[in-house]
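Troubleshooting: if your tokenizer reports a length mismatch, compare your output against this known-good record of 211 residues.
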Amino acid sequence: MDDPVQAEAYAAADFDAAHSRIVDAFEACFPGAGLEGRVLDLGCGPGDISFRFAARYPACTVIGVDGSSAMIRLANRRRADDAVGERVRFVEGLLPGAPIPDGPYAAIVSNSLLHHLHRPEVLWQAIDAHADRGTCIYVADLRRPQDADTARRLVREYAADEPEILQRDFYNSLLAAFTPAEVEVQLAAAGLAGLSVEVISDRHLLVHGTR
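Known-good structure output:
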């Protein structure tokens, strides 16, 4: 999403309920984690989830990484005004090769990055490289429906009120996403087979666990 119009449309969309559930579900996956230290948010987009983690866990600093300069500009614009902005930092870079600061990281999170990657292994390699023993790993993403007709139905059901550009992106993203079985193969190849893969909705899957 390097197109500024596309990035602005995404940032303006109403993800409040969905992103709140991301943070709530993380807490449910890791009850009592009491995160302290650094959290790494891979594919942070305009930073909404990064800010939510910083607000939920006041003993943490959050580093958001994204390959889109347009998204990073939007994230930094918000950072200047957000109450938790001083505990959030954004880094522009593509995987592999993004200038991710060294850990340790208490948690590594990612939402809706996997389906954007032509080489999905780069996400798991980045997690493997930056996770320490005990790091909480939480990756949520779309899951590919059984056919294009199902994808179109999901767009009508969940994005009918969004701008046409977001409806198009949602449809393409559904078709680009992976199935749970494919993700399990990816994890095994990356040496992360100990992580759990769950179907959490009619269009989402979740990978979670500790290193």
